Amino acid sequence: MSTPSPKEAPGRQGSAGLGRQDVAHLAHLARLALTDEELDHFAGQLSAVLDAVAQVGKADVADVPPTTHAVPLTNVARPDVVEPSLPRDVVLAEAPAAEDGRFRVPQILGDEE
Amino acid sequence: MSTATGARLVDFDDALTRYEPVIGLETHVELGTASKMFCGCATTFGAEPNTQTCPVCLGLPGSLPVANAAALEATIRIGLALGCRIATWSRFARKNYFYPDIPKGYQISQYDEPLCTAGHLDVEVDGETYRVEIERVHLEEDTGKNLHVGGSTGRIHGAEYSAVDFNRAGIPLVEIVTRPIPGAGAKAPEVARAYVTELREILLALGVSEVRMEQGNLRSDVNTSLAPIGSLEWGTRTETKNVNSLRAVERAVRHEIRRQAGVLDGGGRVLQETRHFHEDTGSTSPGRSKEEATDYRYFPEPDLVPVAPDAEWVEKLAAELPELPAARRARLQEEWGLSATEMAWIANAGAVDLVAGTVAAGASPADARKWWLGELARRANDAGVELAELPVTPRQVAELTALVAAGTVNDQLARQALDGVLAGEGDPARVVEARGLAVMGESDELVAAVEAAIAGAPDVVAKVQGGKVQALGALVGAVMKTTRGKADAATVKRMLEERVLGG
């Protein structure tokens, strides 16, 4: 069952050291093939980014409730009304490859559908 | 087609003597909204590929989603119908994975704050009620459709490349997740099927989806695990993906029980994996291994603000829910004067609406039930279709019963009239007219047929006149034959008696 468990929840506390292993795993998830040199390179860069963001952790937020939005808005929705779609030739114009009105992509290893 | 790695299938009943199955279902329902979940693109099924797409559902940079109000409302109504708690605060989350059918690189879904939680649905199998606990009901977006081109089987293995159509991408999708269902034992396959059947009925009653399984509006992932009877721990489950017919739901569970029992009997270990169901063989085969794919890195969707359903609004939606199928069945059973078993037969045949419609069009409940569960069920079975798929309407069936009641046709002629209706020749009265099926009155034609029968069988006439009155049956038969069943047998008998025995 795809029921979330707290263990899977995202979020990283404190300092942000990001190892080569982490980068290799992320690259795999994103289906990116990285060389050893690139792994070292990105691990350093990403660690620097995370360290910079970790500065936020120094702020005193004891009285601030957690939020994912800076704007205190809820329930923004639109009516269920159909609007024009893009013309298909426009949709496919930027595709690296197309066939019979569909995007043509390299073969996929994984599930059907 | 691989049926697991060498493991043999165990006889179903035999497996149940040693193992206790636990099942669980995740069901995806495409809502029947006019526009997509986060953009105004149309949702028409079967449109030309990629003609219902825009920057939002194509995931183009800079585009922003806005939630469809009708989809939010439909999800809450589904939750209410399933007795769920409706969240007062709910959020969308990004489920990240890299796959060509998901153009943004993530699916907008819900994670730790779904719209509805903790409901239940009671289903009945063979007179016994099973309570299926609902863990959650959440809202997300559907993916695009991949067409795998090349290779010998058309399936993904051996495919040379894929062609993607994004018309389906972004259609609102509701996921309904059950808690594990233990204790169904040998009835587990039927409980699984009964659950999806009842869920489908509820969705139909709510009018939130067309729930056409053959079009993929409703697809179930079926989890099955086995544990030795008496074991305190449950076994490792498999997840059979995208099972898209009611019958297949039952078969998939049945097959997994037999297969897993074989693996366990052989001292093996059931792998936690997704599997595919094959309609032709009724078996499953492994898909990707689950371990690879669970790292979705969910995080709150920053492009959408939280959904906080107003209590008053939720109460209003609850008050406006239609009569739900179980309550309706109980009411109709009472109105039609049926036993619970008789009502269950109608429900299991998928004939509740059909019988109700026929009664509404003027037929008696007894007649409506007789035609749908008798002659029409036979025809549907012969044709290998569902009752509702037969090309005959409840109104036409009611008209047929009215023709029988009025004496215009007898049962045999009515069946011939039904042939005509099913062949597309129009309403029953018209078919009776066109095919000349009406019972003959004492017309010249019938008188001629009666007199011909008498003249043609002097020996029989002599027998009857000699006291063997039952021999008259042969003459009645002869007349019915000449008139091709159109005469009324009682009338014919009376006419023969008048002439042979003297009036």
Automatic annotation (TrEMBL), chain A:
Its EC number is 6.3.5.-. Allows the formation of correctly charged Asn-tRNA(Asn) or Gln-tRNA(Gln) through the transamidation of misacylated Asp-tRNA(Asn) or Glu-tRNA(Gln) in organisms which lack either or both of asparaginyl-tRNA or glutaminyl-tRNA synthetases. The reaction takes place in the presence of glutamine and ATP through an activated phospho-Asp-tRNA(Asn) or phospho-Glu-tRNA(Gln). It catalyses: L-aspartyl-tRNA(Asn) + L-glutamine + ATP + H2O = L-asparaginyl-tRNA(Asn) + L-glutamate + ADP + phosphate + 2 H(+); L-glutamyl-tRNA(Gln) + L-glutamine + ATP + H2O = L-glutaminyl-tRNA(Gln) + L-glutamate + ADP + phosphate + H(+). NCBIfam families: gatC. It comes from the Bacteria. This is Aspartyl/glutamyl-tRNA(Asn/Gln) amidotransferase subunit C. The keyword Cytoplasm does not apply. It comes from Geodermatophilus ruber. The keyword Transferase applies. Residues 1-20 are annotated as: Disordered. It is an enzyme of class 6 (ligase). InterPro entries: Asp/Glu-ADT_sf_sub_c, GatC. Keywords: ATP-binding, Ligase, Nucleotide-binding, Protein biosynthesis, Transferase. Transmembrane segments: none annotated. GO terms for molecular function: asparaginyl-tRNA synthase (glutamine-hydrolyzing) activity; ATP binding; glutaminyl-tRNA synthase (glutamine-hydrolyzing) activity; transferase activity. GO terms for biological process: glutaminyl-tRNAGln biosynthesis via transamidation; regulation of translational fidelity; translation. Belongs to the GatC family. Heterotrimer of A, B and C subunits.
UniProtKB/TrEMBL annotation, chain B:
Its EC number is 6.3.5.-. NCBIfam families: gatB, PRK05477.1-2, PRK05477.1-3, PRK05477.1-4. The keyword Lyase does not apply. Allows the formation of correctly charged Asn-tRNA(Asn) or Gln-tRNA(Gln) through the transamidation of misacylated Asp-tRNA(Asn) or Glu-tRNA(Gln) in organisms which lack either or both of asparaginyl-tRNA or glutaminyl-tRNA synthetases. The reaction takes place in the presence of glutamine and ATP through an activated phospho-Asp-tRNA(Asn) or phospho-Glu-tRNA(Gln). One of its GO terms (molecular function) is transferase activity. Residues 353-500 form the Asn/Gln amidotransferase domain. Heterotrimer of A, B and C subunits. It catalyses: L-glutamyl-tRNA(Gln) + L-glutamine + ATP + H2O = L-glutaminyl-tRNA(Gln) + L-glutamate + ADP + phosphate + H(+); L-aspartyl-tRNA(Asn) + L-glutamine + ATP + H2O = L-asparaginyl-tRNA(Asn) + L-glutamate + ADP + phosphate + 2 H(+). This is Aspartyl/glutamyl-tRNA(Asn/Gln) amidotransferase subunit B. It is an enzyme of class 6 (ligase). GO terms for biological process: glutaminyl-tRNAGln biosynthesis via transamidation; translation. Belongs to the GatB/GatE family. GatB subfamily. Pfam families: GatB_N, GatB_Yqey. Keywords: ATP-binding, Ligase, Nucleotide-binding, Protein biosynthesis, Transferase. The gene is gatB.
